[in-house]
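User: I'm preparing a small set of examples for a lab meeting where we compare how different chains pack in three dimensions. I only have the primary sequence for this one, and I'd like the structure in token form so I can line it up with the others. Please keep the answer compact; I'll paste it straight into my notes.
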Amino acid sequence: MSGVRLIMNGHQWDRMEPHLPGKRSDPGRTGVDNRLFVEAVLWLARTGSPWRDLPELFGNWNSVFVRFSRWSKDGVWDRLFTAMADDPDFEYVMIDSTIVRAHQHAAGKKGGLKLARSVAHAAD
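Assistant: Understood. Below is the structure token output for the 124-residue chain.
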């Protein structure tokens, strides 16, 4: 895949997939590219790169950002973390918004991206 190292193996993806929106049983569009999208978010978290530096193989950086933001607002990441937290094999895959940093211009508008702390970390 164009020299970009992906993170998830098949077993990990098989465990994550049922917890994500866009299944055939869900109303509306299906998430045919959910795996690639999750890999894009993991790539950003691993590298600490700004959204605009996302490799082209993951798609348009702004589309990935908008989807990340939508999933954050809809609680998808929180549900995924809750579902996967019991498996120590996912320790290096799991991220949350407290460790994802964005460049001040990441959102392309004044003020930049605002990430809220997760409930789990807010209790610490």
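A couple of notes for your slides: The chain has one domain: 10-122. The chain is about 40% helix and 0% strand.

User: Perfect, thanks.
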